[in-house]
Fold this protein.
Amino acid sequence: MSVSTKLFSDQMMTRFSQINEEGQLRQTKISTGRDITEASEQPIKAVKLSALEESLTQLGGFQRNVGTAQQRLSLSDTILASADDILVQLRERSIAVNTDTVSDVDIAAFRVEVSQMREALVGLANTRTTDGQALFGGYSTDIVPFVQDAAGRVQYHGDGGTQTLATSETMRLPASVNGGEVFMQVETDD
């Protein structure tokens, strides 16, 4: 049985076409660095790869959340340490001014100092994160949480929330400190 020239030519053209497609597929795999360029090539591997890519994206989000929580809590620690330093200074000054040998000038100077320390404390309590959120405002991060009213009293306008961020599918870490608890729950005679 003899093979006609036309049949031979058609078979060769089909084979050249297949070789060309395989070459293009390999070139695409090399240039993209991916073994699977289309899901239809290897559907089971494509599904597994898609699930792995989704997991990597999710893990990246969890890592960003951990970094954000660490940054916010570190800033909170720094602010609270500064507030503690101011309160220690205030206590030392009040002990020093609470003697019989204090003049009216000393008391006037003490009042000015106390006023400045109070403003500094309110400023610390109204600290914002690098992305502009109120650090001690609870869930209300777009407001100024501590505001002085007309009578000179500081009012807390935040809420009682403590922000948390997901660090895994089942765990959330606190990413803030409740400003109302930290700055407003001071025991007094009242």
Q: What stands out?
A: Strands lie at 146-148, 154-156, 164-166, 172-174.
